[in-house]
Amino acid sequence: MGIKLGVLLSGSGTNLQAIIDRIAEGTLDASIELVVSSRQDAYGLKRAEKAGLQTLTLSKEMYADPLVADEVIASALRQRDVDYVIMAGYMRMVHEPILAAFPNRVVNLHPALLPSFKGAHAIRDAFDYGVKVTGVTVHFADDKYDCGPIIAQQALVVEEGWTVDELEEHIHAIEHELYPNTIQLIAEGRVIVRENGTVAVS
Predict the structure, then answer these.
(1) Residue ranges of the alpha helices (H) in the chain?
(2) Nearest-5° Cα angle at 114, 117 to 101
(3) Given this structure, which CATH class describes domain 3-201?
(4) Half-sphere exposure of 171 (CA within 13 A, CB side)
(5) Catalytic residue among 110, 139, 170, 176
(6) Is 176 assigned a catalytic role?
(7) In the chain, where are the structural domains located?
């Protein structure tokens, strides 16, 4: 049956779509039990509904107290027996209620090679800095923003003359491959967090 996923998103949901497509192809041994959106107008919700997935949308008012919001999310995920929480363009930090319910089982995707270029504007920041190599990181989330044990990274050589939009396109193309591939490694039990906080991938 594979692992049961809860997916958190805030925007267009292209990484959700990549996961949906890989599950449909039979190359990702997982099921999506719930899609949670922090925004009622997120296009990712349309993708979820088209795929027949259960959704939960939290209002802006609910997020006035982030801990209460995360209690609601954690409770909904537990009700559906979710194994792993997959952050796919979720523009909010997760807090103790979710982290405690899913220790070392909240996975985040970041469009840079952490620990470089943390934050919400990583692609633009890397571009403006003029880096020659950037990339994508998949890591376990913790109580600090864009920290936590790194599971996988893939580098991207930045070609001379690219615009920031072209860089973003290439980053997203990597994300749509790397994220499902990494989730499959987790599904196969090949990802282990060592006691020192680093990750072993077999």
Answers:
(1) 14-25, 43-50, 66-79, 96-101, 122-129, 164-187
(2) 115
(3) alpha beta
(4) 25
(5) 110
(6) no
(7) 3-201
- Amino acid identity of 6? G
For the chain, what's the residue count? 202
| Integer Cα distance of 154 and 164 in angstroms | 19
- Tokens representing 185 are 């490694």
Span 109-124, pLDDT tens digits:
999 999 999 999 999 9
Compute the distance between CA of residue 159 and CA of residue 31 in angstroms, rounded to an integer. 37
Looking at residue 1, what is its pLDDT? Answer: 67
* Residue type, position 164, single letter: V
> Which residues have CB under 8 Å from 180's CB, separation 6+?
18, 19, 22, 27, 28
Query: Tens digits of per-residue pLDDT, 22-42?
Result: 999 999 999 999 999 999 999
Q: Which residues of 155-179 are buried (b: 16+ CB within 10 A; e: fewer)?
A: ebebeeeeeeeebeebbbebbbebb
At residue 145, the pLDDT reads: 86
Helix (H, G, I), strand (E, B) or coil at 191: strand
Average pLDDT value for residue range 126-151: 96
Please give the structure tokens belonging to residue 104: 């070392």
Cα distance between residue 155 and residue 171, in whole Å: 9
